[in-house]
Write a structure and sequence with these properties.
single chain; 463 residues; alpha+beta; f41 fragment of flagellin, N-terminal domain; Heat Shock Protein 90; two-stranded antiparallel sheet; 11 helices
């Protein structure tokens, strides 16, 4: 399931990168399209201004000839109006072509030709007003030459601007196609990726629904197993212990009634039966205790571990005095938990330390507390390294153990020593301890060295 989710995330990331790349590419080409569109509009405006200059120049020519033929002042007014229109047009062209050196040079030629043309027109009109002859003045012919130079420069400028306009229109068309194609590709890619991711999400959703159904079925089976476990615990605490009590009662009664007729071998056998029944009863009681820890707990409360430790030591005081043990303890924190379970936890661990001692070595048990990060628990869950824990360390100088058996120690009814060993145990204490820590969302770690001692570390998460 994680692999499929990772695949969806990878596909989404790739699609996002591709979409971003196409988007940036599209924005770049669209910017170029806007730029060339602006340049096309600019060239069209320059050409329009050139047409206006050409038109005004022709108006000048028509007004001059009309005045020469009729001496009508109307043509004189038209002439002056056209002259006043030329300067703004020339200034407009100069601004429009300020970034084009070649066009600026052509514009200088046009302006010079127009200036000569205007001077010739003024001289010609003055000649027409004063001369008493019908011959055409030489100023008119000079003006025609200036007119030709102006039109030639206008044509040159028009041709250059037309070439620029053609190039810009061509580039505009190219970028229009590129932008349009890019947008289509983005839309197609987006639709394809969306459909693929939608299908993958639907399939993942179906798998999760199926997994949830399977999980619900397993939860139902677990609840059924839990109910059966409660029934077993009830049977162990009542029905299974009754035959054991009867075995002990009948053996004791038989020993009492037949005490004069039973030989030593038979008496020893009966005592062994009684001891086995007692041991079996103790194991059943431990099993009942373990199953009771698995059942649903009551509400948690604040628990002072100093009081828990003091109570556990009180219960083990007789054994501690027999061993002449030294208990070194530090101030322990207050945590949120179940007092009865914590009592079982500390009693089991301290009982182990008092039980597995070395001969002719005074037992020394140390109980320490500190606040640490969960780096020691990263093998269990890497996220624990980011969390804070109360660490309670219980260490002793007993017989210790080989660390290769650590995984076996916390299993129920598992003992590192056989039943004929001088160290008596039922293999339940550490299993109970691990269960208690699990109920508190904590962890227990064990470290040992043979003939040196053992250390148990309890990690309670700081809420």
């Amino acid at each position: 399931m994680k692999k499929r989710l990772r695949l969806i995330i990878i596909l989404f990331s790739i699609s996002f990168v591709v979409m971003a790349g196409l988007s940036f590419f599209s924005v770049d080409k669209f910017s170029s399209l806007i730029n060339y569109s602006t340049l096309v509009d600019h060239s069209n405006k320059v050409i329009q201004e050139l047409y206006k200059v050409e038109g005004v120049s022709k108006d000048l020519d028509r007004a001059e000839r009309g005045y020469m033929l009729t001496h009508d002042t109307m043509y004189q007014r038209l002439l002056y109006t056209s002259i006043h229109r030329l300067n703004p047009l020339i200034d407009s062209l100069r601004l429009l072509t300020k970034d084009n050196t070649s066009e600026q040079n052509n514009l200088i030629l046009i302006k010079s030709a127009i200036a000569l043309r205007l001077n010739n027109i003024r001289d010609n009109m003055a000649y027409m007003d004063t001369a008493k002859t019908s011959f055409i003045s030489p100023y008119y012919y000079h003006g025609r030459e200036s007119m030709k130079e102006c039109m030639s420069a206008l044509n040159t400028m028009y041709n250059e601007e037309s070439l620029l306009l053609g190039e810009r229109v061509e580039n505009k068309i190219i970028y229009q196609k590129i932008t349009s194609s890019t947008l289509r590709y983005i839309l197609l890619f987006f639709c394809t990726i969306t459909i693929i991711l939608f299908i993958l999400m639907i399939r993942e959703l179906k798998r999760r629904v199926a997994f949830q159904d399977e999980l619900n079925n397993k939860l139902t089976d677990l609840e059924r197993s839990h109910s059966e476990l409660e029934q077993i615990a009830y049977a162990a605490s009542h029905d299974l212990q009754e035959p054991l009590r009867k075995i002990q009662v009948f053996i004791n009664r038989l020993l009492y009634l037949k005490k004069e007729h039973i030989d030593e071998e038979s008496r020893d056998t009966m005592m062994r039966i009684t001891a086995a029944a007692v041991r079996m009863q103790d194991l059943i009681e431990d099993l009942v205790n373990l199953t009771s820890l698995i059942q649903q707990q009551t509400e948690r409360q604040a628990v002072d571990l100093n009081k828990i430790l003091k109570h556990a030591l009180s219960e083990l005081s007789e054994k501690s005095e027999q061993k002449n043990a030294i208990i070194n303890q530090e101030v322990l924190p207050t945590i949120t938990g179940y007092p009865n379970q914590l009592q079982i936890l500390f009693k089991a661990l301290l009982d182990n330390s008092l039980k597995f001692t070395r001969e002719d070595v005074q037992p020394i048990i140390s109980v320490r507390s500190d606040i640490v990060s969960g780096e020691e628990l990263t093998d269990i869950n890497p996220k624990h390294s980011e969390q804070k824990f109360y660490r309670i360390t219980i260490s002793d100088n007993g017989i210790g153990f080989d660390n290769k058996f650590t995984h076996k120690m916390f299993q129920i009814f598992q003992r590192l020593h056989n039943q004929h060993s001088e160290f008596h145990g039922k293999g339940v204490g550490l299993a109970l301890s691990q269960r208690v820590m699990a109920n508190h969302n904590g962890h227990i770690l064990a470290y040992g060295h043979s003939d040196v001692g053992a250390t148990f570390k309890l990690f309670f998460p700081i809420e």
